[in-house]
């Protein structure tokens, strides 16, 4: 158990193959030292996961891609081939493994935490890098790092920088390493997120978020699915926007058009929807109002979270 600056107990747990204990690796080490497929989810009511099925499918797709590439390398150990055989069983094979991990983590935290209303951020990694005598017959290890959801300000400051993700539809740990220089810019500029735009000035996504622009005519604009990692919260934003009768344009917002937007926002598992207070670009800074369509969608998505929570059952 750790104590935060606010004096509250901050409980963290690391689970490896359903064995839970105090962390002997940090989350940073987990995602920087090993190759594999990862995802970050959030609890709802402590014993359900927001859009858990979508996380499982994404882990399956990414792990299959990562392990297939590993199995094609010369002198590769047998683990990736065994892992691919296991993953050939699809979601039905993988889901019980991930449920077991999450339940082990949450039971451990229930025994430690004095804050029953706390919700958690759940980061899971599938990797062959650590395979050993402890590894199940499936051929890969599952690590799960769980900690309290981080606090995010009601409105956030973001910066736009030219950058592109090589394989945006796959959540490979390689992306964590590739974005290191942009995360350094993020720290230097003191912003919550860095928005990436291509050579044409089209914004695709943030380092850890999806991005939406709300136009003056009340429509929403966001990058098409094939150009981004389509997150769980992005899915819910699109659903509630359609329910509200909003027009959705699946095309990348242009950073040069920021002056025409009514508002804009980022969304992710940890943040849900966060309206942007200030957007900083190389040649301009744009501030946005405290009451906007972004705020309305933030409230609608917050209400929808419970409906998209899945109990931890195999």
Summarize the structure.
By secondary structure, the protein is of the alpha+beta class.
Features:
globular; D-amino Acid Aminotransferase, Chain A, domain 2; 9-stranded mixed β-sheet; D-amino Acid Aminotransferase, Chain A, domain 1; alpha+beta; about 325 residues; single chain; 2 domains; disordered N terminus; 18 strands
Q: What report would you give on this structure?
A:
- The strands form four sheets. Strands 9, 10, 11, 12, 13, 14, 15, 16 and 17 form a nine-stranded mixed sheet that branches. A five-stranded antiparallel sheet has the order 4-3-8-7-5, sandwiched between helices. The chain has a two-stranded antiparallel sheet with strand order 1-2.
- About 40% of the residues are buried.
- It has two domains: about 150 residues, D-amino Acid Aminotransferase, Chain A, domain 1 (2-Layer Sandwich), CATH 3.30.470; about 150 residues, Alpha-Beta Barrel (D-amino Acid Aminotransferase, Chain A, domain 2), CATH 3.20.10.10.
- It contains eight helices and 18 strands.
- It is globular, with a radius of gyration of 20 Å.
